[in-house]
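Aggregate trends can hide what the representation actually does to any particular protein. For completeness, the protein is quoted in full, as a sequence line and a line of structure tokens.
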Amino acid sequence: MAHEAQVRYSDLVLAKMRAENILKDGVIFNNDYEGDPVAGAVKVPVRDDEVKVGDYDRSKGGDMSESTTVYRTILVNREKYVNELIDGYDAASVPDNLVADRLDSAGYSLARTLDHVGGSTLIAQGSKLNIS
């Protein structure tokens, strides 16, 4: 029963976690990468600067600018899990309403953990951007 529950409930927990996340993939986090996170690493494009904006002259046009992109390998090495003995029940006798409550809590707790780790990483590895 335990393995069947793991297979059956994992997608539910992931759906709840994604709904609860504040730092959403593709909104806060850049999901522009090459590779598969399941493989343990992805390559993320890192550009040297933003696109340059210049003054346009109607008769002469504008100067051409260039930029470069390098690819940084990011390890996907933070794995989390949820595994709880529910009030001393064996897996086959846990009431459905209690299972639903604990799955809801698991999704929320995973989202909160991901937001904390992601936010801490962004702050620790971020840089100040001065826009003039």
DSSP finds two helices and two strands in the chain. The chain has one domain: 2-125. The first strand starts at residue 41 and ends at 47.
